[in-house]
Write a structure and sequence with these properties.
It contains 15 helices and 13 strands. By secondary structure, it is an alpha/beta fold. The protein has a four-stranded parallel β-sheet, with helices on both faces. Strands 10, 11, 12 and 13 form a four-stranded antiparallel β-sheet that branches. Strand 4, helix 6 and strand 5 form a beta-alpha-beta unit. It is globular, with a radius of gyration of 21 Å.
Amino acid sequence: MRHTTSLRAAAAGIAALLTATACSSQRGQEDAAASDGACKGQQTTGITDKSIKLGGIYPMSGPASAYGTISKGVSAYFKYVNAEKGGIGGRKVEFVVRDDGYQPPKAVEEARRLVEREKVFALFQTLGTPSTSAVWDYLNQQKVPQPFVATGASMWGTDTKHPWTMGWQPNYVAESRVYADYLKKEKPKAKVAVLFQNDDFGKDLLGGFKQAVKGSDVKVIAEESYEVTDPSVSAQMTSLARSKADVLLNITTPKFGSQTLAADAKNTKWNPLHIVNSVSASTSVLKPVGFKNVQGVVSATYFKDPADPQWADDAEMQTYRTAMKKYAPDTDPSIQFNAYGWAVASSLHKALDAMECPTREGLRDSIQKLKDVKVGMLLPGVSLNTGPKDRFPIETMQLVRFTGERWVLFGEPLDTREQFGPVTG
């Protein structure tokens, strides 16, 4: 297995430089307009009685560009509420999207542009563990909210030094627990081979899985990692196939997810149960491989699949499909990444509505006090919950199996918080 620390070191160096620059610029509180009354002294940069300006950073290009469409789901939601609901709390939302190409230095550049030039109220949705790691020191020093980042790294919930940053989707440790619980029940003597991305994302999910199967007869017998700059994972898959494992745990981002699924389908002499992590479970990842080649693949989810006919008459799904057709006509509403964008934007709407003060501090506090918040696009049984000792909004997931041309839910939703206890740092 290859071990590298260059990505973390680079992110830490960039973050330190930004923090020093931010301190010397003395922008922070001096440029921020102050609110009045009970909220006196709090930051109102980017928000007025009639508008709110948000920024988002996505890999619209580069090795993780499949995620770029999430921004279209987010944008469609905000356009919908602006046009048909009068905005959020009477405020029209402006959502400014920047492309970082899944490169931490570029994410830093775009974060500074959004904060210092665009004067956004919050940086909503930075995507990817490397990019988010590179900018969160800067954003927390500047006291700019970074709500519902698009990454499930457990650090967003266990860290106590960055109160302005929070995740949204189930963290990777929680997701790994769902797979571990499934294997312990259905394949109690499973021998598992793992392909994982060599960064905090991959290591988080793999580490959580190992911890969750500890003490059982489910064993990890082979591991291979890859770098996001690698052209392919064919060599790693060849090595894993030699292990004769009967389960393949696929911890990858979309480009490599497709490659892994294709390599598994091509190797007819090795037929493990294939588990693909949720961030690569979109049909847009599976389709290039050929749906006939991915039958029976297992994953987990927490929001409604727009391709699943069981939600055809669901009110939220109908609203989503109509709005996507109207406000994002160049996108396919059946792609799960678009539905993800809609769901997370809707979640932010709830948090903004719950602010006690229409300020950056108000949003920071609101996302830390979510209590059984229902969001229409989330699965039944899944809600948002946070508190002083729990900064993970969603920790309930349900297993899905790819059948025909879509994912099919099976089993029951698993509240990993209740089953395994809280995720700790």
